Amino acid sequence: MSGALLVAGTTSDAGKSVVAAGICRWLARQGVKVAPFKAQNMSLNSMVTMDGAEIGRAQYMQAQAARIEPRAIMNPVLLKPGSDRRSQVVVLGRPVAEVDALEYGAHKERLREVVAESLAELRAGCDVVVCEGAGSPAEINLRDGDIVNMGLARAAGLPVVVVGDIDRGGVFASLFGTVALLEPADQALIAGFVINKFRGAAELLEPGLDRLAALTGRPTFGVLPWKLGLYLDSEDTLALDAPRQDARAPYGNESLRVAVVRFPRISNFTDLDALRCEPGVVVRYAASPGDLVDADLVVLPGTRATVADLAWMRERGIADEIVRRVKRDQPVLGVCGGFQMLARHIDDEYESGAGGVDGLGLLPASTVFQGEKILGRPVGRAYGEPVRAYEIHHGIVDVEGGEPFLDGCRVGAVWGTTWHGAMENDGFRRAFLADVARRAGRDFTPAPDVSFEALREATLDVLGDLVEEHLDTGALWRLIEHGAPSGLPVLPPGG
């Protein structure tokens, strides 16, 4: 067996990544050798494989759901925006170019070959490949050069399931319109729909499902209920706007309050998911100085545009508030780009072309950006605990003093490191939070038995349960084995 299907969506953040991960876990639990695949991903949330390749964090998570080792061919093309017009192009885990939207077209034919070869290699070594689309398959202005949605489906003969987010409203119009906008050969591969994030009375939804089937000639394979608290590795900052339990919870006397500066080009914000898993830790995203005032810990996370986001932080007055915090001995943590901002000086002729720029001067270090990207899976110790992490950066930080902290340094209540994922190490996370709580005068003790890895596995099992309990798995099997049914109706433009 060498089956496959493509999970597309009506919009970004409709739930493609979650549905694909759920299908991977459902199949893996049945002993099927399954792998995820996303031909082209645009995301600032990435991860490093064991062999040093950079791929989208969502595909890394989906590989975990499939219970296999993540590989570069699972996400052969990764685009990392550095501004509204320019992106770094990462091919098979390595950066190859910085291009704008128009220049990218010149790379498309070569990338199409890379995508085809990667998918063929995965299919040759697996029973099933679960592919994920990007954005919407009905981006008709981009169809001619498409290598991730219907372009991929046509080239590889993949049946397509379209996911719609009912929580945003307009799901029936979005699903119908997605099909209607496609040319007939693309429509022939759209096998049906999945409705995601439903909450309410199921009987009120059924007339709409019946009408959608009558209009399109395609079934809805199931309705997935709303689930809070999954916090899976999103590739899109839209996920930060989704309702979260901690976003509405009041700060309590025993809470540890964490404010994360939400840079315009924030990257690897999944670093903070492990903090959120601790009972009593409340994580919020900050875009103004007032958002930091009552925080026990402020985190400057990673960013794809260190110099530009540092300027943004200064313009908003956030930088001044951070300096005031440090003078009051209130904890601040900088990760990767955030660490570079806390240092004395940044020399950037590569990423921004700005040349020499003063940092906040809160840590004894300086940064020089270079063309070669550092990708790795470092190991070390801090607070007497082992730490396994990953690093993705062009800026090379030279530490000139302070107390060693992972690969960076610490001065008083200010910490800096280029390592991502350190908080996923349970012993280190507990020791770090205990130190923050002590310095903040907070009556907070980390839970001694929280395992981030176990919570992640439990969440992936929840996704597998959702697929098994709420989707027509028999229909999914038929699509995987036999492709899209023949004779599906073609909708004329506009219905």
Automatic annotation (TrEMBL):
Keyword annotations of the record: Cobalamin biosynthesis, Glutamine amidotransferase
Q: CobQ/CobB/MinD/ParA nucleotide binding domain: which residues?
A: 6-228
Q: Where is the active site?
A: C336, H420
Q: Does the keyword Zinc apply?
A: no
Looking up PROSITE patterns in the UniProt record yields: GATASE_COBBQ (PS51274), GATASE_TYPE_1 (PS51273)
Question: Where does the record locate the signal sequence feature?
Answer: none
Name the pathway it acts in: Cofactor biosynthesis; adenosylcobalamin biosynthesis
Is the Metal-binding keyword given for this protein?
no
User: Which residue intervals define the domain CobB/CobQ-like glutamine amidotransferase in the entry?
Assistant: 257-426
Pfam families recorded:
CbiA (PF01656), GATase_3 (PF07685)
PANTHER family under this entry?
COBYRIC ACID SYNTHASE, DETHIOBIOTIN SYNTHETASE
Q: Into which family does the record put it?
A: Belongs to the CobB/CobQ family. CobQ subfamily.
What does the protein in this record do?
Catalyzes amidations at positions B, D, E, and G on adenosylcobyrinic A,C-diamide. NH(2) groups are provided by glutamine, and one molecule of ATP is hydrogenolyzed for each amidation.
The identity of this protein, by name, is Cobyric acid synthase
Tell me the organism's taxonomic lineage: Bacteria, Bacillati, Actinomycetota, Actinomycetes, Streptosporangiales
